[in-house]
UniProtKB/TrEMBL annotation:
Keywords: Monooxygenase, Oxidoreductase. Residues 6-332 form the FAD-binding domain. The keyword Transport does not apply. Belongs to the 3-hydroxybenzoate 6-hydroxylase family. The lineage of its organism: Eukaryota, Viridiplantae, Streptophyta, Embryophyta, Tracheophyta. GO terms for molecular function: FAD binding; monooxygenase activity. It comes from the Eukaryota. It comes from Acer negundo. This is FAD-binding domain-containing protein. Pfam families: FAD_binding_3 (PF01494). InterPro entries: FAD-bd, FAD/NAD-bd_sf, MOase.
Length: 414
């Protein structure tokens, strides 16, 4: 069966749904193809920095989400090796683009809010893309696992680290960093009692963090460099939980209690992968009427908390670039080869503009995240000394500096 859709977005994650909603706000319809049967909420939560809130405001859902997530006031960094007092810093400092605003966002809440704002038939679930081919210079054929073929003028890959679209563009599979993360969340029956602080702990080659999302929910993560023996618990939440507790025995009791009270279905483990930064600089972010965004473009380690935030930025910028391109054609009439060529060239220019705008930003975030992760989890007396004496405060400032960014509004130039 063959269908036609002007704009096809592969993946109903943060980047895909933000792009689709951005286009919808600008009066442009898109079709989102999602391989799973429902929204993918893997990862539970993520730190939502100031740049992400500007993107959420641009797409019109910031106010609603603020009501559901606690504003974080300070970041507290503690070394479990040195025994030194924690390094504490305000998260409300003012940057070039305004005062800092950091919350811990429940991924499910964000995706459901994005979905709710879209027309009901925008997302098509159980639609796995298996291949892409050229129907002509102006059109792509998107082949689904169920045999459906969708003909489209614009193809956007927001399909994650194993992206079919990024592979088509020539990107290599994101390599393993040698580090993995276990993530979890705990729902308390009453108030958890934690202050609105982002708490981080450094140990021997490990890093852990605990962040309240709201009055009852605390999100936590643990990163480490796994050995071959650690593979036995990758799919075993009970063993994951015991492993994290064994590595976090030096943490305060009320912090350990968060892990202890986490239900087994609230724990996952995943290897940390990233795009080599130079591939983003030299690779094809777009080619013709095809481009990638989100993790399909710039998978990065979670060490500066910018994976989800930058995906939100991508969605706003991409929607704006596509809308400008389509409006410059005057209309979408493509009944003849000349009209189709004009539309294609405008789309191609719009996607190139997106790539140009996001290339260096992606390079900067991937590189910073990798370096920060390396510093935070490195072992050795010299590195421990430098991290405890100098780097803790610097790293906290770096997180805020990278979030001091504004992707702009959903406005277009006629």
């Amino acid at each position: 069966m063959e269908e036609v859709a002007d704009i096809v977005i592969v993946g109903a994650g943060i980047a895909g749904l933000t792009t689709s909603l951005g286009l919808h706000r600008l009066g442009i319809r898109s079709l989102v193809l999602e391989s799973s049967e429902t929204l993918r909420t893997t990862g539970f939560a993520f730190t939502t920095w100031s740049n992400a809130w500007r993107a959420l405001d641009a797409v019109g859902i910031g106010h609603s989400l603020r009501q559901q997530h606690q504003l974080l006031e300070r970041i507290v960094i503690t070394s479990t090796i040195s025994g030194k007092p924690p390094s504490e810093r305000s998260l409300r400092t003012k940057g070039k683009h305004g005062e800092g605003e950091i919350r811990c966002m429940k991924r499910k809440v964000l995706l459901e809010e994005l979905e709710r704002e879209l027309p009901s038939d925008t997302i098509r679930y159980s639609s796995k893309v298996v291949s892409i081919e050229d129907e002509s210079r102006h059109l792509k054929l998107v082949h689904l696992a169920d045999g459906t073929i969708i003909k489209t003028k614009v193809l956007i890959g927001c399909d994650g680290v194993n992206s079919v679209v990024s592979k088509w563009l020539g990107f290599k599979p994101p390599p393993f960093t040698g580090r993995s993360a276990i993530r979890g969340y705990t729902e308390f029956k009453g108030s958890h009692g934690f202050e609105p602080k982002f708490m981080q702990f450094f140990g021997k080659g490990t890093r852990s963090g605990f962040i309240p999302c709201d009055d009852q929910t605390v999100y936590w993560f643990f990163t480490w460099s796994p050995t071959s023996q650690d593979k036995e618990f990758e799919d075993n939440p009970a063993k994951m939980k015991q492993f994290v507790l064994s590595k976090c025995h030096d943490l305060p009791d009320r912090i350990k209690a968060v892990i202890e009270n986490t239900l087994l279905d609230g724990i996952i483990s995943s290897p940390l992968r990233y795009r080599r930064p130079w591939e983003v600089l030299w690779g094809n972010i777009s080619k013709g009427n095809v481009c990638v965004a989100g993790d399909a473009l710039h998978p990065m380690t979670p060490d500066i908390g910018q994976g989800g935030c930058s995906a939100l930025e991508d969605g706003i910028v991409l929607a704006r670039c596509i809308a400008e391109a389509l409006r410059k054609t005057g209309n979408n009439d493509d009944d003849n080869d000349k009209d189709r060529a004009v539309v294609f060239e405008r789309i191609e220019m719009g996607l190139k503009k997106f790539g140009k705008e996001r290339r260096w930003r992606s390079f900067e975030l991937i590189s910073t995240a990798y370096i920060v992760g390396y510093i935070q989890q490195s072992e050795g007396k010299i590195m421990n000394f430098l991290r405890d004496k100098i780097l803790a405060s610097y790293l906290a400032g770096l997180l805020m500096k990278r979030s001091d960014f504004d992707c702009g509004k959903l406005t277009t130039i006629s």
